[in-house]
Amino acid sequence: MTRVLCIASHPDDEVLGVGGTLLRHKAAGDLVWIVLANRCRTESEVESREAEQRMGIAYERLWESGRTIADAVIDYIPDVVYTHSDADLHHDHRDALYQALVACRPQSGVRTIYSFETPSATDWSGRPFDPHHFVDIKATIEDKDHAMEAYESELRDYPHPRNIDSLDNRAAYWGQRVGVDYAEAFEVIRECW
After folding, report:
1. Which regions in the chain score pLDDT beneath 50?
2. Domain containing 93: what range?
């Protein structure tokens, strides 16, 4: 059993970038936690509780618990961490990444760190998102879509990247890169098996 921690900046980032993969870990019997680092709009906070119900994964909202990303890493003792990409436009996303990297130094016990894209925020940065690790999410894409629908205030009309059809098209694109129907893509920060 693998211990998996997602460190995301805002409510909705966890579903947008890594939702299908987290659901696949859950289905495999892994222990999975989601940490949200930054408070967002009130609607998003309420919606994140609905997304948590739909994902069936434990969430921790650091602004409520008064804890830090480092505290979460120490307490959850993850083997694998998923967090934002350095190619992301949003400074809160990059800040969560940098805090995660400090907390997940090799002596932390974290073996593997992957960074995910955040549709729109990564797309518009002008920096390349360069994935080399892909996860087949064919079995979990519908549940990811259902969880994303909880974030009604964050959804936009097609062709905006934060649209269910756009997310499915993106997953199909990454899947084409590796020969599966749907995939999520990750940059490898550190990988030890």
Report:
1. none
2. 3-190
